Amino acid sequence: MASHYEIMIIGAGPAGLSTASSIVRQDHKVLLFDSGSYRNAESKYMHTLPTWDHQDPLRFREAAMKDFDRYGSVSVEKKHVESLKKCDDGLFEAKAGENTWRAKKVVLATGVEDVFPEIPGYSDCWVSGIFHCLYCHGWEERGCESAGMLAEGDTGNVVVALHFARQGLRMAKQMTLYTNGNTQLAQDLTETLQAAPAPMTVNSKKIKKLVKAPERARITLEFDDGTSITESFLAHKPKTRLKGDLAEQLGCELSSAKLVSVRPPFNQTSVDGVFAAGDCASPMHTVTAALYSGTCAGGGAPLQIQAETYKQKALF
């Protein structure tokens, strides 16, 4: 037999927690699903969030959950939702194993997952030596002699590669752009730097393996030709994809970037009654952006329920 709630939130990262933090202020019965899997699980410090600078993201999640205690309207299920559908009666049904839950509204805060390039050792260096965001990471390495920028995937073009490399120069005196065997990109970068010089060099060698050095964020790049270089850190944003397929199960429209399309200001998707928040619905993958979008979705779902309760027209 299914348990009934007013709103189900799928995902307990910053976006899901922010969504619940808004909904509780309107006293709706909420179910928050926490799969225990987080994109920043390997990171021990979070930054750019006032009052939480350089603290463990785990502490932030625990404190946010504790805030719900005094309200008594938020239930948490530490389960991974496997299926999600809209039933003929208009309610939404979520399943995990043998358990079933139903609700009037759903907020997808499922996030995205990183797709690492096929370079041996890359995953071992993730976060500890490879930084995807030089606002989130990197300041602690400032003053270093040299750092690297991996120009591949989402960063594998001149404009984006130089964008990251310029940020790297705030921490390092010299940046090397590694194109991992892409000679055309290496030539384009070299020509751009000749026209607009900066403390940057280009290395087109094919990377054989990445090895995390024991000191700080240092990382060694081993090349196919037998040579190697050790950098103070490596900047690279890998490709991302939606985490799970719940949006597709519901039939939500996706954007050209393969994220869930939402309509401002309340982040409703193309499916009535379904809202989305955080990384799964925005290309701006930061904690502060996730918190903002969670507030938007957490405002929209209750407002829609309240209007429908009295058969009145909602604000949106």
Automatic annotation (TrEMBL):
**InterPro entries listed in its UniProt record:** FAD/NAD-bd_sf (IPR036188), FAD/NAD-binding_dom (IPR023753), Ferredoxin-NADP_redctase_2 (IPR050097)
| Keywords, ordered alphabetically | Flavoprotein, Oxidoreductase
Which Gene3D superfamilies does this one have? FAD/NAD(P)-binding domain
Presence of keyword Flavoprotein: yes
Q: Does the keyword Transmembrane apply?
A: no
**What range(s) does the FAD/NAD(P)-binding domain occupy?**
5-289
Q: Which GO terms describe its molecular function?
A: oxidoreductase activity
A single GO BP: cellular response to toxic substance
Family stated for the protein in its record: Belongs to the class-II pyridine nucleotide-disulfide oxidoreductase family.
Protein's UniProt name: FAD/NAD(P)-binding domain-containing protein
Species this chain originates from: Periconia macrospinosa
